[in-house]
Amino acid sequence: MYNYLFSAAVSAVLCASAASAQTADDAVRRAELLRQRAAIDAELAKMDAAAPVPAAQPAPATGVAMGEDILVTSKALSLTTRVTGQTVTTVDASAFRNTPATTIADIVRLSPGIAVTQGNGPRDVSVSVRGSNARNSFGARNLQVFEDDFPVTQPDGLARFDLTDPHAYGAVDVVRGPSSARYGNYALGGAVNFRTRAGRDIHGVEAGIDGGGDGFVNLYATIGQGNAGHDIAVFGSYVRGDGATGHTGYETGTLNALARFELGARDRVAVKLIYNEGDFRLSTRLSYNQYRTNPYQQGCEVAATAAAGCGTISVLVNGVNGARIAQTAAEGDLARNDRRTIVGTRYEHELGPNTTWRTQATFDSRVVNQPTSATPFKGTLDSYNLTSDITDHGRIAGMAATSFVGVFYNYLDNQSYSFNKTPAGRNGFGALTQTVFGDVRNLGVRAREELQLTERLQFIAGIGAERSILNVRQTAYSYPVGTNPVLSLIPAERHFTNVAPEAALFWQALAAVRLHARVGTGYGIPQAGNLFVTSAGVPGNNASLKAQRNTGVDLGAEVAIGTHVTAEVTGYYEWFTNELVSQSAGVNLLAYTSNVPHSVHRGIELGLGWRPLAGVKLDASYSYNDQYYTDFRERLTAGSISQVLDRDGKAIPGVIPNFVNLRAGYDQPGGPLAGLGGFAELTYRDRFFADNSNLLAMPSATLVNLNLHYDPPRGHGPLSRYSFYASVQNLFDVTYVGSAAGIANSLNATTGAENPASVLANTTGAIYAGQPRTVYAGVKARF
User: Fold this and answer.
1) Which residues 6+ apart lie within 8 Å of 167 measured at CB?
2) 83: domain CATH number?
3) What whole-number distance in Å separates Cα of residue 502 and Cα of residue 500?
C-alpha cells in the first residue's frame, strides 16, 4: 500500500511537471497575479458582509495575521478560522516550513496553552490544551480536532495525530477554553484545526525528501492549482523510521486532498479526502526505575537474556487459560496496524446577498489491528457526521450583526474485539476475552450572535444543546479449566442531555490593543468502556456515571505595535465537575470509572513575536497550568485492607505546570543570499506528578534544537526552485521522559499505609523515553 501511495504521488508530480511549459518568469508572474486576484476577491467578500470586525486586529505572536484570506470566498461562519469571541492562536507554515516536522508536535508546541508528549510509538503524539488530555497516553480526548473545518474527532471523543504529515499544512488554529457551545461534545479544552495548503499557493508541484537518524525517511509531494473559480491541492507522502527505543518504528503512507469550486455566483462546494495506513512497532511502557536503568530499552530482544531495565508482558501459553510466560516487546512483536479513511463534502448556497446556507457531511472509518499488549484489540469504528447551518449578516437595532443557527448529528458504529495473546508473535491471537458492539449518537442545535455594539466594542453570545445516547453491549468470555466457556452479557444504554452557553466581549481599546473577556462552558459524556463495571465493583451497567463539565473565564489582551511586536496574554480560571477517573471499589472488587465532584484548572498563557531588525525573528510561548482537586475522595485497596484517602488540594497527575518554547532566528531578507537563515530553539518542560497523591514526579527537561536552511524566493537565481535545511533536535542529547501514563497509588497489604514513591517507581506500564539527539536534513523542489 505504501509503495502504491508514493507511486501515485510521484506519477502525479511527473504529469504535472510535463504539463507546465511556462518559463520560470511566467510562472512567477502568474502566481503573483493569482495572489492579487485572490486578495481582491477576499476584500470584496468582506465588503459584502454587513458585520465588520473591529478596526485593528493584532496578529498572533507566532503566526499569520488573523483572518487569512481564502480563494473561494465564503460568508458562512467558520468553525475554527477567524474565530471571534475566543482565545485563539494561529501558527502558519513559515514557522515550520524549513524544519523536519516529523510529527504535528513540531507545529502545535509553538502555540501558548499547548503541551505535547509522546503517544504510543514514535509517530504518535498526545496533545493537551490547558491540561485537557493529561490522563490519556495517546491521541487527544476532551478536545475537538478538525482539518479544513472537517471533523477528525470521532463521536466517541477520540482523535489521533499519527495519520497526519505536517508537510501538508499551511497553518494550524488553536482555539482554547471550554467550547461546547460551538463544537459540542468533548470540547472541554477547545479545538485544533489543521489547514492544508491552498492550491493557489502551490501553483504547480512541490516534491521533497527528508532523511535523518534512526532510519527516518519522508518522501512527499504536493500538487496544487487555483484561481477565482477553483482551488485544488493534493498531498501524498511515504514515511518510515526505526525509532531510538528498542522495537519501535513505523511505516506509513498518507493521501490528503482538498478541492473547492465555485459553481456559480451563489453556490460553492468543497470536497475533502484523508487516507492513511500505518504499521507501527511498539515497545512496552516502563516503570520509572526501569526507565532510569535502560531508557531506550537496549538489549531487550529475548526475555530469558534481557538486559536490566527491560519491560515484559505476561502471555498465556495456550492463549486460553493456565500457564503464562514473560515476553519482551520484540518477542511478542507488539504492534499497531491501523487504517483511517475520511471523506467529506461541504455545500454552500447564498440564499440572499447577506445569508448563506451551508451543509456538510463526513464519513470517517477507523479500522484497527492492535496486538499492543497481553490483550490484543481489533475493531472497526465507522462514523458519520452531518451539519447544516445558516449564517446571516444583517443589523439588529441599527447595529451590525452576524447571526448563526445550525443543527448537527453524528453517529459511531462500534464493533470491537479483545483477545488473549499467545507467544506466537504479532499474529498470536488467542481466545476472545470480550466483544463490544453498539453505537454512540449525538444530536443537537447551536445558535450564535455576534453584535457590533460600537465601532470598537463587540458582543458575542452563543448556546448549544445536545442529546447523546450511548447504546453498547459487552460480552465477556471466561474459560474455566475443564468446562465450557462462560459468556456474560452486559447491556448499557445511557442518555445524556447537555446545554452549553457562552458569552464574550471584545474591545478595541486602542489601535494596537485589543482586550477580551469570555465565559464559556464545555461537556463530555463517558466512553463506552467506562460503563461495564458498577460503582459496587462488579460487572454491570455503571448507571451512576455522569457527564463531565467545565465552566471557564478568560481575560486577555492582544497587542500589535506596527509589524515589529505582537503579543498575547490570557489568564483563565475553570471550574470542573465530575471529571472521569478510575478507582477501586473495595476488597476483592473490580476497579470502576467514577466522577471527581470538583476540581479547578487555572493558568496563564503568553505569546510574543518580536522583529527588531530586518530578518531577525524572536518568538516565545509560555503556558502555566495550576490544576488541582478541590473535592475528591479516592479508595485504595490491598489484600483485605481498603481505605479512602482525601485528595483535596492535590495536583492533577499528568499536567505539566510550566511549558516554555523560545525561538531566535535570522533569515537574510535580500541580496544574493536571500533566504539563507537558521534558528536556535529551546523547549522547557516542568516536572509533573504521575499519581493522585503527588508522591512520584517526573523530572523537568530542557531541550535545544538548531536549524540551518536556505529557501530562496522564486526567480532569485538558479537555485530558486529548491530549498534546503539541516536540523539537530535535542542538541545536548538530554534523556527525558517523553510520556508518562498515570500511575495508580497503592497500599501496603500488611500495614494499610500508602506506599511511598520508592514503591510507585517500580510500577510498570507508565513511561516512554523521549527522542535523543537526532540529525535531519531535507531538500524540496518546486516546479
Assistant:
1) 101, 208, 218, 220, 222, 235, 237
2) 2.40.170.20
3) 7
